[in-house]
Known about the structure:
The chain is an alpha/beta fold. The protein has a domain at 6-191: NADP-dependent oxidoreductase domain (TIM Barrel). It is 39% helix and 15% strand. It has 10 helices and 10 strands. The protein has helices at 27-40, 54-64, 84-98, 119-131, 145-154, 173-181, 201-210, 214-225, 236-243, 252-259; strands at 6-8, 14-16, 20-21, 44-46, 72-77, 103-108, 135-141, 161-165, 185-189, 228-229. Strands 3-4-5-6-7-8-9-10 form an 8-stranded parallel β-sheet. A two-stranded antiparallel sheet has the order 1-2. Strand 5 (72-77), helix 3 (84-98) and strand 6 form a beta-alpha-beta unit. It starts with 5 loop residues before the first strand and ends in a 21-residue tail after the last helix. The model has no long low-confidence stretch (mean pLDDT 97).
Amino acid sequence: MTQVPSITLNDGVEIPQLGFGTFQIAPDETVDATLEALDTGYRHIDTAQMYGNEAEVGQAVRKSGIDRSELFVTSKLNNGFHEPERAMQAFDESIERLDIDYLDLFLIHWPLPTIDVDYVDTWKAMEKMKATGKVRSIGVSNFEIEHLQRLFDETDTVPSVNQIEVHPYWPQTPLRGFNRNHEIMTEAWSPIAQGDVLDEQVLADIGERLDKTPAQVVLRWHIQRGDIVFPKSVHPERMRENFDIFDVELEADDMMAIDALAKGDGRRGPDPATFDYIPD
């Protein structure tokens, strides 16, 4: 079986660089999709309270028969639970829904800087979660430089990861550099720009030379940049395709050609500086 490289986070926890994402996978499809991913060889599963499928991810993990120590499971705090006491309660409820004893990584899903509850206070609650031993590592998602700087200035724990939108159209060079300079690993969500980038001729040309699809070329670009990626699919053949990216190496010219796809308006998701969605 293909050996996925692991990255050591700033707290010593090791995370597989390639994982399986469960965003927008319906709960009734999640168990089978996650089991298929695990059978393919994925050992890193990314879910969130907001996705509504934590229980099914946990069911798949238990049903797989794979030793829990061999798996890396991430979840994220929903936007309606930033107040510290509610955050602690929501975390405990995630553990109960997953029913897998502990999480490997728990993230603040969005900073929500325009709402009344300060994300710095939320982060202090995250520090308490880690102290319980129910989560091995804590981090953030969709945090910009100014949000991270406040955490550095006002708390004692540097996030282990920052999960952000990253793809060839939106490479996030300044933010990724800031993360790297502070020993925060970058996790890339929407790694193929919701599929928009796949029609680029440069990807087809590289893929033809390497006998890989455009999606595989982009995922390989992420891997060689040092991003942690977790593409989502419910189709077994696509899961296997996304996993089959470790037998090729992009040349420096390939990397630069993909870098050149960056656009000034390349973002596909919400702007973290203004995003204020609170689920019902």
